[in-house]
């Protein structure tokens, strides 16, 4: 017995050591692959910068010859104007970002009652992890109501919801849609079931930090005009072997912590993300019928429910803010196919909601200044309008001289992407920040077609990434 009792722990330790060793062996190739991709991206961009220097006489020749024709003058004028606008809008955003400050959490006594709604479809075990992270929130238990709604899943999502109910008891209520109706209908049911003064929506593939909920809803307490709040979204699965989540994490930091901070300074955040958002109850019910019955070109809208809700709340005259201190970590696509489908869905929603926004943004839709909202809208519209001319100019430059086109495009990426690199490095980790260069190369050459395609197919329905 003595020998067995001594030997067993040794065997366990050996097993644990082997497992740890195997994990390290698997991690090394992943780590080296990531380093190689970032190094190659930098080499490509700096090589392009050197090529631009070497070929500067050719660039000058093309610029001068371009001035000899009306087409050349028009192209140079449009390109120059776009560059000036982009630069001006960037510095405007930078000014707004520097003005932004997240609202600190209010006291437990001041916190409102909150209903958290988690719609789920074919999410499997992740929905359990999502609900457990919410249950661990540093929020008064008597003021927190958790609702999970299975939207007719075909996998074991409902079983995992039942497991969460078993673990959490009365702290969570679970419901099952009779059939898959879409995320919008699952949320609609949650809005009618919930009793909270504030609704919080959390995607079933997301997890939150302990202080997320209290930070997210505090703006409603200090600002009576606040109708919605966007959370700060980071990537949950960026520790996996896939490279896309690592790139998207850097992209998300710029999109949320810089862009939405700037929009929040204007009290006009344009989209509260489905992964984490909060809404004042009165604001939701002020547009709920319009939202659930929304159509585009005569067809029911089954995508972009987050952007649509934000738009309709802005239209009512409410402020929409961003809380940098309210984090949610969400799973993102790990393959190109899933990524472009997600972007197409977002792009179509963007087209639809900009059309909807055009109908009220130049009216007296709220008290106080409306200039900021209008500037943000015009920037969105300009991006859409310039998508086709940009592709035509790309084709024109490629036909004229593909080498000059490639060199100048990569050099532009080096310049424009250096800000996301510096921004991420200052806030998080320098080595990870270089993914911004890799992502910009991928987007420029692999995803440039998304916006034109989304415009041309804006009326199409379908989630695309749901199996």
From TrEMBL:
<feature type="transmembrane region" description="Helical">
    <location>
        <begin position="436"/>
        <end position="456"/>
    </location>
</feature>
<protein>
    <recommendedName>
        <fullName>N-acetylglucosaminyltransferase</fullName>
    </recommendedName>
</protein>
<keyword id="KW-0328">Glycosyltransferase</keyword>
<keyword id="KW-0808">Transferase</keyword>
<dbReference type="Pfam" id="PF00535">
    <property type="entry name" value="Glycos_transf_2"/>
</dbReference>
<dbReference type="InterPro" id="IPR029044">
    <property type="entry name" value="Nucleotide-diphossugar_trans"/>
</dbReference>
<dbReference type="InterPro" id="IPR001173">
    <property type="entry name" value="Glyco_trans_2-like"/>
</dbReference>
<comment type="similarity">
    <text>Belongs to the NodC/HAS family.</text>
</comment>
<feature type="transmembrane region" description="Helical">
    <location>
        <begin position="73"/>
        <end position="95"/>
    </location>
</feature>
<dbReference type="GO" id="GO:0050501">
    <property type="term" value="F:hyaluronan synthase activity"/>
</dbReference>
<keyword id="KW-1133">Transmembrane helix</keyword>
<keyword id="KW-1003">Cell membrane</keyword>
<feature type="transmembrane region" description="Helical">
    <location>
        <begin position="375"/>
        <end position="398"/>
    </location>
</feature>
<feature type="transmembrane region" description="Helical">
    <location>
        <begin position="404"/>
        <end position="424"/>
    </location>
</feature>
<dbReference type="GO" id="GO:0085029">
    <property type="term" value="P:extracellular matrix assembly"/>
</dbReference>
<dbReference type="GO" id="GO:0030213">
    <property type="term" value="P:hyaluronan biosynthetic process"/>
</dbReference>
<dbReference type="GO" id="GO:0005886">
    <property type="term" value="C:plasma membrane"/>
</dbReference>
<keyword id="KW-0812">Transmembrane</keyword>
<feature type="domain" description="Glycosyltransferase 2-like">
    <location>
        <begin position="115"/>
        <end position="284"/>
    </location>
</feature>
<feature type="transmembrane region" description="Helical">
    <location>
        <begin position="35"/>
        <end position="53"/>
    </location>
</feature>
<keyword id="KW-0472">Membrane</keyword>
